[in-house]
Design the sequence.
């Protein structure tokens, strides 16, 4: 979240209107307050079920009239109704080279599987977990002796380039959701764009 806010204040043509979390103690909320960004928590325990929580969350989000809803460290599975409401303007980053290692503990699983490379992928969110329309990704080599922590740190550093880059594409109109597909520069993406070890420009 902070990487996105910092990029927005430096170069990205976007406005971060609010930061929302399901956890009142999430550090991002306190940091958003300090930065003068609207921030709030909607704890799931305050609602009778997941559907009611997601209805409240969607209503709060719509109050900010966003062009794009950006998931950054939000680990709850969103309901089908929520995903449908924001279809085409709901985006997520996942710490793996999707479709490999969907779900949690991706770095540990990559090491246990003996993967030689790992990374992160940005995708439009659909109902199925981590199965959305792939937009772009970065690859990170798995080094001999890597731990979960060392691998995660290298992936996170590249995520901080990848995610703002994709958000910039969307803000400038280069990236679109059209006819149930991701399009970049007027071309339907059959494969995610591969960002290299540069500034993320394309």
Sequence:
């Amino acid at each position: 979240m902070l990487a996105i806010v910092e990029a927005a204040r430096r170069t990205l043509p976007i406005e971060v209107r609010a930061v929302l979390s399901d956890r009142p103690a999430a550090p991002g909320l306190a940091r958003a307050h300090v930065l003068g960004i609207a921030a709030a928590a909607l704890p799931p325990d305050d609602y009778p079920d997941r559907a009611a929580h997601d209805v409240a969350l969607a209503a709060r989000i719509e109050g900010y009239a966003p062009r794009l809803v950006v998931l950054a460290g939000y680990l709850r599975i969103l309901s089908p109704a929520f995903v449908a409401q924001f279809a085409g303007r709901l985006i997520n980053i996942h710490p793996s080279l999707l479709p490999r290692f969907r779900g949690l503990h991706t770095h540990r699983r990559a090491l246990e599987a003996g993967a030689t490379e790992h990374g992160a992928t940005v995708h439009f969110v659909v109902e199925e977990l981590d199965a959305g329309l792939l937009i772009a990704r970065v690859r990170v080599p798995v080094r001999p002796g890597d731990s979960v922590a060392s691998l995660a740190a290298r992936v996170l550093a590249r995520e901080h380039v990848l995610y703002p880059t994709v958000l910039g594409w969307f803000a400038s109109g280069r990236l679109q959701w059209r006819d149930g597909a991701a399009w970049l520069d007027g071309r339907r993406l059959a494969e995610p764009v591969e960002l290299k070890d540069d500034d993320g420009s394309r």
Notes: The longest strand covers residues 133-141. The chain has a mean pLDDT of 94. The beta strands are 18-21, 38-41, 69-71, 90-94, 117-124, 133-141, 175-178, 181-184, 187-188, 193-195.
